[in-house]
Write a structure and sequence with these properties.
heterodimer, A: 222 residues, mainly alpha, Methane Monooxygenase Hydroxylase, Chain G, domain 1, 8 helices, 1% strand, elongated, B: 410 residues, 15 helices, globular
Chain lengths: 222, 410
Amino acid sequence: MSILDLFAKSPFKPMQEHMHAVLECVRQMTPLLEAACSDDADGIRQAERAIDDLESKADHLKNDLRAHLPRRLLLPVDRRDLLEILDLQDTIADRAQDVAGLLVQRPMPVPETMRRPLLELGRAVERTCERAGEVIDTLDELVEIGFRGREADRVEHMIDELGSLESETDRLGSELVRELFQLEETLSPVSVMLWYQMIDWIGNLADSAEKVGNRIRLLIAR
Amino acid sequence: MALGLYMAFSIGANDVANAMGTSVGSRALTLRQAILVAAVLEFLGAFLVGGHVTKTIRGGILDPTIVASAPDVVVYGMLAALTAAGSWLLVASRLGWPVSTTHSIVGAIAGFGTVALGVEAVQWAKLGRIVASWGISPLLSGTLAFLIFTLIRRTILDRPNPVAQLRRWGPAYVFAVVATIGLVTLFKGLKNLNLDYSFTEALVRTALLAFLAAGIGAFFLRRVHVDPEAEADFHFATVERMFGVLQILSASAVAFAHGSNDVANAIGPVAAILSVARTGVVEVGSPVPLGLLLVGGVGIVIGLATLGYRVMATIGEKITELTPTRGYAAEFAAAITIVLASRLGIPVSTTHVLVGAVLGVGLARGIGALDYRVVGTILLSWVVTIPVGAGLAIFFFYFYKGLLTSLGGA
């Protein structure tokens, strides 16, 4: 028998690759929202197609990773935590796809006063997700050191920052909702409903990013 | 003799790759260097320390008083044991079944002994101790690996400046390997070379050797420079590269340990046959002839240089998860366990000990993913290989007996 039988594929690099694909999706949010603000239908289509491609790439990575995580593996962390984090990462890409899909299926001109806060929210969401990506990028360092000690403290600190970035997106989201409330009389009721949903969805990206961080905290705390 | 050489050859071709593949995988050694290191240290291990386990295989499993009454049975039996183990290894490794050279040969000797000489001819208590050690040795190496890895984490990795920390403590890690392996070897271990050191003598010589090694290690550790680019991507890149230096040593220790234990599988039966041919009885107390250990060592090296090359390359290519810090911890733990077993004359499975050690590092949360299925494989190899080895040995025993007596009659 060979010692080879002992080694299984480590899930941590693929986790990072998956997150990188998810972040590529998120990075399409700014071009998407900018196109929406300037009524650029072609721009919206283009961004939506890019997000679709990236999302299916992420899906592919996710399924592949799941297939390589049977129960009999000895991992440095709880297998369920890893699967949970993977799902959360995936939610981010899914939501980005939802937002793009809605903008394509039902063209919604962005009211003048909502444009600036909408773009700001988009950028804040992107920053939050990027920070979650940085946390995921420390996974190989965390494995090296066994999920404890100094490296773990450093990551905890990054997760704290991730939390405050997410709060910022909440604040920008409420600001946008207030603008929308001002405009309720001038927009069709369906548009108003869909805008509320849209703002909610964009915020979801940051919520999931924060949850990714909190799950990593659990890995460290175990 | 040819059969013994063939066994040594196949040990060199297959088993050594398991021991050295871990170092090739972590890029601590290139394939060429690994072959060279393995060749030199396998040979030294076999030649210097291989006598203890060889004595066990030669005369420790079967009762010498019963054996003395039937020297011809021993000749057929040992031939049969070699043939059985060799052919079973050949078939099983082709089919990818779990086999261990050690288990095959021990099972084979016990098998022909029971059938040819009767149940009471097998020293069941000794055999029981050997079989128990097959369970204990992976547990011991696992525990040691867990502790060594935890120590590396505490003293090096989890520090503000791991590189500086390793420059300071690295020589101590070198010292530890040379000191433990050296002491176990030198203290009453080299009787067959007429070097019977007392504890103090062994201690002084080991300490000198270990200090020398630590000095050399310190020199090489200083020559590893920080690569800022790699460091940006992965904070421990430099530390891992530095540990590569230490892993060369731990890999050498494994090769030495492997040679010291596994050479017996090949030449133990040959030793019994030669002993009968020369004196008419199986010697129990006298040392194994040096020439025989030499032949065993050479056989392993030839197997390694011809076929082991390829096996090692495949294994090294696929084991990339075991970085030098982990490799060092696992290999050091395995080497201590195996050399200790060698000195006590207990034949253990090097691969199983190594698996135990890697699992120990894994349990210390040190490795990305390990497959528990291998534990089942190990248990299976105990359940399957021993009876099959025994059965084949019985078959070949009657084969040789029939062949040789009919030749003698004609």
